[in-house]
# Entry
Amino acid sequence: MSGTILSARFRGKADLKLVGRQIYYEQLNFWLNPIGAIFTVGFSVVFLVLVGSSTGHQRSSAIGGGLIIKYYVPGFIAYGVMAACFNTLAINIVVRREMGLLKRLRLSPLPTWAMLAAVSASTMIISAAQVILVLLIGRLGYNVPFPHNVAAFVVALVVGAVSFTCVGLGMSTLIPNQEAGAPITSIVFFVLLFLSGLWFPISASSGLAKFSSYFPVRHLILSVYDASIVRKGVTGWSWHDILVMAIWGVAGAFVAARRWSWAPHQAKRGHSRGLSSFGMIGGRRTG
Amino acid sequence: MPAIAVEHLTKTYEGVDAVKGVTFEVNEGEVFALLGPNGAGKTTTIEILEGFRKRDGGRVEVLGDDPADAGTSRHLRERIGVVLQELAVEPFLSVRQALTRNAGYYPNPRSVDEILELVGLAEKADDRVKSLSGGQQRRLDLGLGIVGNPALLFLDEPTTGFDPSARRGAWDVVRALTGGGTTVLLTTHYMDEAEALADRVAVINSGHIIAEGTPESLGGRDVGESSIRFRLADADGHPPVPIPATVSTNGVYEIKTDKEIEVLAALTNWALREKVSVVGLTVERLTLEDVYLRLTGYQPDTDSDAASVSVGSS
# Structure
């Protein structure tokens, strides 16, 4: 029976190829959907250019009198990762679940681990693309240097990406239906971004900073910022921030594992089918 | 070995018994239809067979494996195909991309071009899924169900929402598959679909199988009484009809009997003797739908009974 067991689990090279193919189709699916791609990748670029061009040359006392643009570049790198791993992923999973795509995938021979690996790898690729894009815009457009501590920069982003992926998967299980997917996730996301000081640097001693430090968003922004910009007394390693993100990641994974459902949450209404159930991300489903 | 063996299957959701001891077998190469009203337990039964839900009790074997066994589930899923009630394809992929991707999940898939031909989407191969009409999307769904070259295909209401010609097309696809030896488990609300496709049917109601047989013999259809209907050209001035019959307000006489030959002989002899013109004479057995409705407890509208009156002498 060991052959049977093996066939159910991991088949070596063939399975790696399977995951590779699945990543390819995940990527196709992402980039072919204009709304998803614009919302995730376009926003970080547009915001960076907008705020960079308006207030970027000013200095802020909240970051020790540094140039604000040097805060915005790492900030929007963090934004891009969170948008891909949390916001887009959570909405995407809800849409797929409610459309019945997860159920169909469950009924196919593609193993669950392979699907999750491909989904995670795909969000990592999207995140990495944004990181590089924003770094280049910062360097070429606003003369912001590349990260001074590359190792710390990568560790912060990888832990952040993994943690926010887990939180995104957990979040998706809390959303009851397709209509609520985009509004709930985006409100949570943008409120946290605001409180965490993405749009304007906030002083670490402020009440806002203390409140938002309970959530992982501020920690990703700060750990990327510390690894990016040289300041006195900053090595670039922000273990405290990384730890908080990791705790959120574990919590998200726990919720996802406990509440995960392959079947749509929303009871089927009659037998309507067709394009209505197809809409864009967050689209309305009738019938 | 049967392709599917189900014995005393039970499933309870939050205290409600959805499936209460269902037993049936589907032979290899057979098309087996599960009929029943919404909520009867059809979909739950199918989902347990697909390995999507865990059963609470009973024995289930699908292609020799227990679908609840995680160790063999991947092996099983490589040999089954599923067409779901809900249409589920990523909207931004092209038809060909969706089929090619899914084909890659299976060890011995059919060729994507062959599937495109079979489901009539060859000309739409490079169109995005979201640009397809509802019927075309359902056909893609069917294509995705069979692209893995399954030994067993689950079709959960495969033609709901199809126009009549698309339904015939889908039936042709199913027949082509079964000609190649594929076993099919079908659920449907259309009795003509069950009659056209199924070798055997079972009616499930309130979690029980209440009848099983060929479409021709279900519920004693082949031995039960027939319905003889006719009208009389001269509605008023005719002698009394010699056999007890009901007559509806629009003048249609109906005789229910299991002795068709005798009744017809008596009726025609009477008509010739009395020179009464009998028109629109039909002899019908119960339709599959009649049997299904009777089995599932449908009560005919009592008003239509009130509109009929008994006539004739015995």
Confidence is low (pLDDT under 50) at residues 302-307 of chain B. Residues 221-311 of chain B form one domain. The CA atoms of residues 143 and 224 of chain B lie 40 Å apart. The longest helix of chain B spans residues 164-179.
